[in-house]
Design brief:
The chain is α+β, with helices and mostly antiparallel strands. Among the domains are: about 5-75, 434 Repressor (Amino-terminal Domain) (Orthogonal Bundle), CATH 1.10.260; about 190-295, no CATH class. The chain is about 40% helix and about 20% strand. It is built from 8 helices and 10 strands. It has a 6-stranded mixed β-sheet. A 4-stranded antiparallel β-sheet has the order 6-3-8-9, with no helix packed on it.
């Protein structure tokens, strides 16, 4: 029996219609029919084929992992999860902090020498300026008797000249205060689809930019599975507070899928934008989330 026939048999045993199954899984009816008929090539890709089969199996009471293992020759294969997990995982902040500290200590002697040279330069410049100013200062006795001293009469200034000076000063101040405004775009997470009675949600990440960093922080222990649009595993296994934080580079990905076992203890951040669970993680600890990345 093929995997599609097995799923269809389980659905019919539970008297579940395709329309009802579509409402439960949020999978379009034509994709459900394609799965039952074994036309997996109709699905958007390997990632969605595996994800849709898992959702179908859960809805009809079958174990998705056992089902995929039993029909692993029929279901599109993905890369080995363990190899992908360790090849994609970046260094944590703790490791990067220690390397930064070592780099700072190695540069410390050079910085001290540069500061000493700058201090000596400014000290020499100060004493030279002081000597020059003392030499240029003449005593009243040394002033030339024939030197003409001209004192401007403030009454000779016309009102027109004074007004022009004030206007020029105001114009100068306005030009100095005018500074170009720069707009900074921040990545924005918007909810696209939310299942109020279940645990599935879809987000769009807009204005993400060329570099997209996914940061994961945990305050406890949670099962976590992360895949990209091709069904390749980015992370799979238990995620604890001791491992936190973990950073993943998802700049080249079009979408990311999260299967979370304990959402209340997991924080998901894209660049500097935190994902807010649309479904209360304290009431629904198990959540499945799709995030479409729009650069």
């Amino acid at each position: 029996m093929e995997i599609g026939a097995r799923l269809k048999e389980a659905r019919e045993e539970k008297n579940i219609s395709l329309d009802s199954l579509q409402e439960t899984t949020k999978i379009q009816k034509r994709y459900l029919v394609a799965i039952e008929e074994g036309n997996l090539q109709v699905l958007p890709g390997k990632f969605y084929a595996r994800a849709f089969i898992k959702e179908y199996a859960n809805a009809v009471g079958l174990d998705p992992n056992e089902l995929l293992e039993e029909y692993k020759e029929e279901v599109p294969k993905t890369e080995d999860e363990t190899e992908v997990q360790y090849s994609r995982m970046q260094r944590t902040r703790k490791d990067s902090s220690s390397e930064k500290n070592n780099a700072i200590f190695s540069l410390l002697p050079t910085i001290i020498v540069i500061l000493l040279v700058i201090g000596i330069f400014f000290a020499a410049w100060y004493f030279i300026q002081l000597a020059v100013s003392n030499g240029d200062t003449d005593s009243p006795e040394e002033q030339n008797d024939n030197e003409e001293i001209i004192i401007n009469n403030p009454e000779e200034n016309t009102d027109g000249d004074a007004g022009t000076g004030e206007e020029e000063t105001e114009d100068t101040n306005e030009e100095a205060n005018e500074e170009p405004e720069e707009e900074e775009s921040e990545a924005e997470l918007s909810i696209v689809e939310e299942e109020t009675s279940g645990t599935n949600s879809t987000f769009d990440l807009n204005d993400a930019g060329d570099e997209v960093t996914l940061t994961l922080e945990s305050s406890g222990n949670t099962w976590l599975e992360i895949e990209n649009e091709a069904g390749e595993s980015l992370f799979s296994g238990m995620f604890s507070e001791d491992q936190s934080p973990v950073e993943l580079d998802v700049s080249d990905e079009e979408s990311v899928y999260f299967n979370i076992g304990n959402a209340a203890d997991l924080m998901i951040i894209f660049n500097d934008t935190e994902l807010e669970y649309p479904i209360d993680p304290n009431e629904n600890v198990v959540q499945r989330i799709w995030v479409n990345i729009n650069n």
